[in-house]
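Give me the fold.
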Amino acid sequence: MHRNESDGVRQPARRGRPRERRADDAILDAALTLFADGGLAATTFDGVATHAGVSRSTLYRRWSTRDDLLIAALQWSRARAEAGVEDWATRSHADQMAIFTRLAVRGLTDAGGIGLLRHVTALPGDSPVRHAYWSTIVAPRRDVFTQLLVSARAAGDLPQGPAPDLLLDQLAGALTYRALVHPTPLDKDTAEHYLRRLLTSLGLASTHDDRSTGPHP
């Protein structure tokens, strides 16, 4: 019990919030997992409820449509993936590239992330989920990387080169091709090696970082 300061009446203490957060986390994780595994067809409210260990009514109290649920799951996923790096702009160029490399390697090796990308790109162009993936995941990262690139060039940490948007298209295209089209999956070491070579070829890393030894994916 706690006291309401305005009227002096003791009120029941609020409970259940941690439990609600745990339920939300379980639901959002289940939605992304099912979507990454099997796309929209596999992402039903029944399936999500079963996977998360909650009732259908719990889902419907929070989200009225599958699109709403998946959009919320994308927002939740980005917040979790990038927790702790919100202050990237104040870090050194080396630290910024280390953060980017860590996220990119995860994207190249995480089966769930690759499955998510595969099924998002299979959605029609007018899909709200596809638009949310762009606005929630892709566009913010492009904005961050553009600012990183501009500031690094201005400071002399990177050479001048193509316009940032074109350079980002080349980088994203190579990573997407390697994740979705190439038949051989990458482990952490080969993903890091591939990324070093790619960044060097695009003028985003010094040539002495491109080690000639080690496995070539």
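The chain is about 65% helix and 0% strand.
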